[in-house]
Specification:
Layout lengths: L1 H18 L12 H19 L2 E7 L3 H7 L5 E6 L3 E3 L2 E3 L7 E11 L12 H6 L1 E12 L10 H6 L4 E6 L3 E2 L10 E6 L2 E7 L7 H15 L8 E6 L4 E2 L4 E7 L3 E7 L1
Parallel strand pairs: 1-11, 3-7, 4-14
Antiparallel strand pairs: 1-2, 5-6, 5-11, 5-12, 6-7, 6-8, 9-10, 9-13, 13-14
Helix pairs in contact: 1-2
Length: 260
C-alpha cells in the first residue's frame, strides 16, 4: 500500500515540476522521511529530463524561513545538472512559475561522507570541504499555498529548488569566520536585504552537519564533488517580472543573474 502511495505521489511531483502547474499537499504523506522517499523516486525520473543530481540545497536553515514554510527542521532537496549556471546567467522569467532569489553560501565536497552507523562531527564535515562559493538559489513558488503544503510535500518536490547560480569557487579556509560574513541582496542595483552567515542554523558548518546527518540517517550519504547550498542569509526576493539580481557575500564575492 505504501509503495503505491509513494509511486502516485512521485508521479504527481514529476508532472507538476515539468508543467509548472501548482502543487497542493500530497495525500498520504504525513512525515518528512516519507517525503524523502518520494523525492528519491521522483528524482530518478526527473534526472532523465533535467540531468543528473549534482548538488543539494537546504531549505529552512534560517528560523524565519522555517516559520514561513511551517516546518520544524530544515528540509533537503536535490539539484539537477541542467539547472546549475555560472554567474552572469540570463534566464527566461517565463521558465518559472513565481521565482525568488536567495542569497547563499555553498560548499563543494572533496571527499565522501557516506552513510554509516555513527554520527558525523562538525570537524569531520569541515574536513570534507574542498571549495566554498557565494551562490544564488532560484526558488520557485510552484504551490497552491506554500504555507499549507507541508514539509513532506516540500521534501518530495526538492523544497522549491529551481536553479543554482554559482560564483567563483575558492579553496576552503577553515579559519574563515563564516557565521560573521555579511551578505546583501540587490535588485536592479538597489539593496533590498542584508544578513550574515549566522542565519544558517547559527553557523554554516552546522547547516552542513545537519545535511550530512540527515543523509546518513536516510542511508544515502553525500559524494565527493557534490555541492551543497546551505540556505539563504536574507529573505527570498520574489521576482514578479524580469529583473537583474546581484548578491554579495563578504570574502566570497558577488554573483549575478538576470531574469529576462
Amino acid at each position: 500500500m505504501q509503495a503505491t502511495i509513494f509511486a502516485e505521489a512521485a508521479a504527481t511531483v514529476i508532472r507538476h515540476r515539468l508543467t509548472l502547474t501548482p502543487l497542493d499537499r500530497i495525500p498520504g504523506l504525513t512525515a518528512l522521511d516519507q517525503g524523502y522517499a518520494v523525492q528519491a523516486i521522483a528524482n530518478r525520473a526527473l534526472a532523465k529530463a533535467l540531468g543528473p543530481v549534482v548538488g543539494l540545497k537546504i531549505g529552512g536553515t534560517a528560523e524565519n524561513t522555517r516559520r514561513l514554510i511551517a516546518v520544524d527542521e530544515p528540509v533537503l532537496g536535490e539539484v539537477f545538472a541542467s539547472t546549475v549556471h555560472k554567474s552572469g546567467a540570463r534566464l527566461p522569467h517565463a521558465a518559472f512559475r513565481r521565482p525568488g532569489i536567495e542569497t547563499e553560501i555553498a560548499v563543494r565536497l572533496g571527499r565522501d561522507l557516506p552513510a554509516r552507523p555513527q554520527p558525523y562531527t562538525r570537524d569531520e564535515v569541515t574536513a570534507a570541504i574542498a571549495t566554498i562559493v557565494a551562490a544564488i538559489e532560484i526558488v520557485d513558488d510552484r504551490y497552491l499555498d506554500f504555507k499549507t503544503v507541508g514539509g513532506p510535500s516540500l521534501a518530495a518536490d526538492n523544497v522549491y529548488n529551481a536553479a543554482s547560480i554559482l560564483g567563483v569557487e575558492r579553496p576552503f579556509d577553515p579559519a574563515l569566520p563564516l557565521e560573521r560574513l555579511a551578505a546583501r541582496t540587490l535588485v536592479d542595483g538597489r539593496e533590498v536585504a542584508t544578513g550574515t552567515g549566522a542565519a544558517l542554523l547559527g553557523h554554516p558548518l552546522d547547516a552542513l552537519l545537519f545535511a550530512a546527518e540527515k543523509r546518513r540517517k536516510l542511508g544515502t550519504g553525500l559524494e565527493a564533488g557534490t555541492f551543497l547550498s546551505l540556505g539563504t542569509m536574507t529573505m527570498p526576493q520574489w521576482a514578479e517580472g524580469p529583473a537583474a539580481f546581484r548578491i554579495e557575500v563578504e570574502a566570497l564575492g558577488a554573483v549575478e543573474v538576470a531574469l529576462v
